[in-house]
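[READ THE FOLD]
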Amino acid sequence: MLRFSPCKINIGLDIVAKRPDGYHDIITAMVPVPWHDIVEIIPADGPDTVLTVLGRPVDCPPEKNLVVKAYRAMETLFGLPPVQIILQKIIPDGAGLGGGSADAATTLLILNDLFHLGLPKDDLARVAAKIGADCPFFVYDEPMLCTGTGTDMRPISLPLDGYHLVIAKPQGFSIPTKEAYAGITPAQPAVPLEQLLQLPVAEWQGRVKNDFQPVVFSSPSPLNTCPELYAAMLGHGAVYASLSGSGSSVYGLFSNAEQADACLASLPDTAIAYRCTL
């Protein structure tokens, strides 16, 4: 059984408090984006579950890959037989796009269907929350306002239909999430994010912020072209541009298709880029 696994962008990301358990409380809107990995699960040829990764390289051993963790969670709950998982990576890692989390959620959805488990999405989301903070979002795959550690969610309506999206990630550059958090002083926003998102999209710039953006943009790495990519988005007419998640992808929302196309064409070869219409 095969499914396409989307990514996401964050529209606004406020880090509001550090929790006693060492994690952080956040407020963010997550929006699914049809830039896909591909997950296929078939019966195993032998007695062991096997992961095969194609496409972009993934720098972690199989048992630490989130798709295998997703399988192990379901195996523990339901005594599943061994399977072969084929993961085709297209979404870049270390991009703030949630590709690995999406792959884990997609694995849960496939296993639920493949073995006729009949779990509703809310139950799958509870399993997903134990794998990673972004994972439950991808079970639902619709715009959500996410709070707490990111696993408390409710649907949010955003006026994005028809906007043109360009995403760009500097090749070879990312910042570990723990390091990105270390540069943040949590604080309550002056205006709640949900209130700001009720404004027209053209009024978001300068108001809807990502707290990680100053930290990522100030990285001295010679591979850090985030500020330049961000400036290219705005320079080509994006009505809103931002870092996604903890980076290192930046994105722009364009009301004009020609401006989005021109922005995409202007990006350097060192950027991994994607373009779609929402």
User: Anything to note?
Assistant: The first strand starts at residue 2 and ends at 18.
